[in-house]
Amino acid sequence: QVQLAESGGGLVQPGGSLTLSCSTSGFTMDYYAVGWFRQAPGKEREGVACMSKSDGSVFYMESVKGRFTISRDNGKRSVYLRMNGLKPEDTGVYYCMADPRTGTAQSMCSSDLPRYAGMTYWGKGTAVTVAS
After folding, report:
1. Which of 8, 44, 107, 125 has the fewest Cβ atoms within 10 Å of its own Cβ atom?
2. Contact 68/48 with Cβ under 8 angstroms?
3. CA-closest candidate to residue 34, choices 24, 44, 26, 43
4. Pairing between strand 10-12 and 126-130?
5. Angstrom distance (rounded) from CA 62 to CA 48
6. Which pLDDT tens digit goes with each residue over 2-45?
7. How confident is the model over 42-90, as pLDDT tens digits?
8. Long-range contacts, stretch 57-64, CB < 8 angstroms, 24+ apart
């Protein structure tokens, strides 16, 4: 049974830091691109950071460049998102994603990429609130 379980969310003040973790099971993570998406209140889900499965290249959405870092540990079957310099606009529910397709990191984060049940795996999300 495939499972992705996010943790590490919470309430943090502007300028603070959080590290999100995604623990996976039920599939071989080595063969999957991975990523983090977020959905802010009243907005559609968007790709925040993604890492390709082929060469480990990464993509970040413009607003988080230089502040967020995605990483993976295939041995631990985990994906991480280190978030520094958090801003109120970073508030939202953060979802972990795994996708077996070969593509650039940017394509893996694209909202235009069709997602199919049974192919793209999602966690249930962890909430991040940035407020003073």
Report:
1. 44
2. yes
3. 24
4. parallel
5. 9
6. 999 999 999 999 999 999 999 999 999 999 999 999 999 999 99
7. 999 999 999 999 888 999 999 999 999 999 999 999 999 999 999 999 9
8. 57/104, 57/105, 58/105, 59/104, 59/105, 59/106, 59/108, 59/109, 61/109, 63/89, 64/90
